Structures are given as C-alpha cells and as structure tokens.
Amino acid sequence: MMKEAQVENNVGGIVITSSPSFWLTLAVATILVILFLWLKSPPPSSHNKKNPKQLPSTGKKTTKKKQQQQEEKAAQKKRGNETKEKERTSRTRTHPWLLTELKSHKDDVLDFDFSHDGKYLASCSEDRTLILWNTWTFPQKKHKSLRINVNLDHALNIRWSPDTKACVIFRACGNNLSVYAVTKNSDGSLQSCKPLTDYPQIQSKGELIGMGIASTGKFMMTCDDQNMMTIWSIKGVTFASFDTHLINTYCAIVSPCGRFVGASGKLRYVF
Question: Are 168 and 159 in contact (CB under 8 A)?
Fold first, then answer.
C-alpha cells in the first residue's frame, strides 16, 4: 500500500503531476500573491471617495472666483460712471449765476463774440461750422440758432460788425478774412448767413493773436505773433501794414471808440 498517491502523465514531453501536496502548495502561493497585491494597492473605497469630492469642489471654487471678478468689475464700472456723472455735474452746475449751456458744436470751440447790442452771439469751431445764437432765448430750454458750414476750412476767429449785418471770420487754411452777410426776420431772429467776400491772403506765416472791427465800422485790424499788424478797410483794401517790434506779440485789440489800436508782447510796454 502506498503512503502518497502520485500519478504522472507524460504528454508530448511535458510531465503533469497529480500529487495533492503540489496542488496545496500552488493554492497557498496564489493566496499569498493576491494578499500581497491587495495590501500594496490603495483601498478602492478611499480612492472613490476622494475624486468625487475634489472635482466638484474645484469647479465650485472656480465659479465663485469668476463671479467675484465679475461683481468687482461691475462695481468698478458703476463707481466710474458715478464719478464721471459727478464731474460732469460739478463742471456744468457749480455757480448760481450760470444761465445755460450752448451745446450745438461737435468739436472744440475756438472763438466766440457778442454783438454790440448784446442780442446775438457768434461762435466758430473746428467742426467747420459757425453758429449764430439769439441771446434772448438763452433762459429757455430750446435755443434758437443758425448753423453755417465753412467750406473746406474752419474759422479760428469770429467778430460781429457794429451794425450786426455781417460777421467776419479768419480762415485757418486760407489764412485770410471772410465776410458773411447776415439777414434777420421782422422779429429780430436770425434768418440767413451767406458768404459775401474774401479778403486777400495775409502774407505773414505767424499765428493770428488779435482781430477786431472798429465801432465806427471804418476799418478792421489783424495781428499775428510774428509782429505783423495790418489795418484793413471794410472792403478788404489794406490801409497799412507794419511791424510792432515787440519781439513776440501776445495781444492786439481795437479800442471801443474805434480811434486806437494797441498791442503788447515780450517787451515791457504797450504799443
């Protein structure tokens, strides 16, 4: 009688053993390998718990940050708009004597002039327009005005004639004076303003710093910063042209009585 049964089969040169001890050893080795791998790897439950929590929390934080940034931007924009509104209000409504604001020009207003009787105001702008205003409408909400386009140029200076039947402008590109005839309605409101005549071009290349019409209506004066003063007739004829000898002329005006012209500049006296 054999103590341990053992069966060996030889199939194709391979020996297959059917000993019980062999199968027991193989089972134990398999169990040990499975235990080793299970202990080495992290628990599936902990891995599954962490990931679901991490992903949503990251998304929530990102969304909150975006919301905070958007809220901050909106708050800054609101504060900026409020500041601009306060500045605009403070600029336009700061004095009890302020009567009105004339806002028809679309670019920088370079000059304006009241008529001698105070009934009209004329303004010129870089938007290539002249606007004539009726001053008695200033207290009203709607201001009556007359807009005139300056063809291919813009006016640097503008003056009313003493009788308010014309206004004179100095053209920036043409470097000359232009006279516009003004007509009125029976109630005194402005009806039209059309080009009447152009004066010859001023030869000096300096910047115009002074322009005036005598209250008598007999002559006009122009003066530039290169010290060239010119006296014109109303029809555009040059009466006189001379150097003020002020090195640099800063200001030139016609007296209200129409008898004198004056200029001042870098030297310490009035010419």
Answer: yes
